[in-house]
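Posted in: Protein Modeling Q&A

I'm a second-year student putting together a small comparison for a lab meeting, and my supervisor asked me to include a predicted structure for Protein YIPF. I've never done this before, so apologies if this is the wrong subforum. The sequence is pasted below exactly as I got it from our records. If anyone can share the structure token output, I'd also love a short note on what stands out.
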Amino acid sequence: MASADELTFHEFEEATNLLAETPDAATTSRSDQLTPQGHVAVAVGSGGSYGAEDEVEEESDKAALLQEKQQRQQPGFWTFSYYQSFFDVDTSQVLDRIKGSLLPRPGHNFVRHHLRNRPDLYGPFWICATLAFVLAVTGNLTLVLAQRRDPSIHYSPQFHKVTVAGISIYCYAWLVPLALWGFLRWRKGVQERMGPYTFLETVCIYGYSLFVFIPMVVLWLIPVPWLQWLFGALALGLSAAGLVFTLWPVVREDTRLVATVLLSVVVLLHALLAMGCKLYFFQSLPPENVAPPPQITSLPSNIALSPTLPQSLAPS
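Accepted answer (user: helix_wrangler)
Welcome! Here is the predicted structure, written out as tokens:
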């Protein structure tokens, strides 16, 4: 009588020969036949992976259809709906970004911690509009207060300051980020490790950095020159520090000379904006020029005046 080991060896040899003749045949181990009651044994052959592949293909098709649908629904840049998405922010997000611009810290990136790949135009637009309006109003109020202190100062409403303030602020908030973004894009081709911000992110950085100038302009109503310059220096320091801390992770990959020159130009342009606002909108006017009274020149006493009458009144 053959032992159990011999029977197992013969069965294994027969199965090996069978597989050699039909390699595509499905096989089931002996242990599967001894599955306990209440359990189901499933034998997977060479074609068992088709179910998983079908599920993967189905999911990939769904993702492709969803992406195609989103691209189809993406409006063109010439439509109002395209720009509407850039104003889709709530009050808490705007306040958080304003807070981040007012409290710059080293190592705290404004783009990564506050924008989070969702730049908006709502905050920069209204910050620039508010700053231009406050500049024009406080510039006129400064003249009114000066006239009350010194009646010799002549005041007339200067409505053109609204236009000057709006053009100056909006040109600075859009043209300077455009030039900076273009320069960083050009340097990206030179230094491949550099990853510049997008244009909208650059506009957001500059737009929110101007918020600190709004309370500075209001405090400039205090008629103390050294205090006005102190408030201007504090606001400029906070705003410029936020720009430098945000731009440093991008420009540090470049050469030391380029990074130093670029950040210096950024701070210099910011300082020129603040000084221009101070000198133009809050300039001190001299007293009104009053025409001096006409002086009567006295003639020498030895010159006698001839009592001549006009020819029309002379007797005939």
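A couple of things worth pointing out for your meeting: The chain has twelve helices and no strands. The radius of gyration is 41 Å.
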